[in-house]
Amino acid sequence: MPNKTAESLNANRSSLAHKVRYALRNPGRVVPYVRRSVRDWRLRMTHRDHVDYYRAVMASDAARDPRAAVGSRNEERWLALGRMQFDYLVEHGLEPGHRMLDIGCGNLRAGWRLIDYLDEGGYYGIDISPDILIAAKGVLVERGLQSKLPHLTITRDLTFSFLPEGRFDVVHAHSVFSHSPIEVIDEALANVERILAPGGFFDFTFDRTEGEEHQVLREDFYYRTDTLIALAEKHGLDARFMEDWEERPHGQSKIRVTARGPRSEAG
Q: I need a surface site. Which of 61, 86, 224, 227 has the fewest CB within 10 A?
């Protein structure tokens, strides 16, 4: 994954100048980007709602390769990224007896390790894409984890209205907000405290910029850290930038959110 250099953190990837420079440095990626742009134009015409749009993106990507659909160019990278997420959560408070909600669980890149680690029934994965959840069930079978009885559920929003209050010790969203407009992030932060157990925490990654906030097509969104921390605080939550995640070989950054008061004592 690319390092978070000053150049990359200040780049506006939606600008024509950046696209030209990137194309000159990476000529092999020009054709795939053109294909994405054509797909983006077509899907914008037929899917005005962002969830419908991104569900169609995932259907298209999953039909070609479920591993690539969640951002892994090959099996080795798929395993490595899943291991990275899993190791970080275990090192930072996840315990076998915890109940965990995995937002955007995808095809269980990290999820299969989490299911194996957590006690029976402790894992709850949600995703907007029925296609990727079908792939997730295939991974569950491949890994022989049916007896752990994980929950895999489709959703179309992040209100969590179908989930019980105070249920989850850990809520996790990896590479979800990097594909989400600010109103989707706001919706999640407005509702996550209700489902957090006392002492619970919510970890999420995002594509960070220190320059102008921007998006590339309707697929990739870049935010400043202070924007997301302020958004969490607006909803009465404490949020902190996870500096040690920056040491991992991953292009995104991470924020941890906890409820204020007694709930924020652990985690």
A: 227
Give the distance between the most distant pair of CA atoms in the chain: 53
Could you tell me if 238 and 258 are in contact, meaning their C-beta atoms sit under 8 angstroms apart? yes
Residues 217-260: tens digit of each pLDDT: 888 999 999 999 999 999 999 999 999 999 998 889 999 999 98
Angle subtended by helix axes 50-64 and 130-142, to nearest 10: 40
- The 10 Å Cβ neighbour count of residue 142 is 10
Residue 78 to residue 174: CA distance in whole angstroms: 13
pLDDT, tens digit (0-9, with 9 covering 90-100), for 32-72: 888 888 888 888 888 888 888 888 888 888 887 776 666 66
Cβ neighbours for 82, distance < 8 A, ≥ 6 positions apart: 108, 109, 110, 111, 112, 113
Contacts of 161 (CB under 8 A, 6+ apart): 191
Helix (H) or strand (E) holding 90: helix 75-91
**Pick from 76, 39, 78, 38: which is nearest to 59 by CA?**
39
> How far is Cα 225 from Cα 82, in angstroms, rounded to an integer?
24
Q: Which of 91, 120, 110, 97 is nearest to 169 (CA)?
A: 97
Q: How many CB atoms lie within 10 A of CB 238?
A: 16
The verdict on pTM exceeding 0.70 is yes
Closest CA to 223 of 238, 241, 236: 241
Residues 191, 14: Cα–Cα separation, whole Å: 31
Residue 262 structure tokens = 């007694």
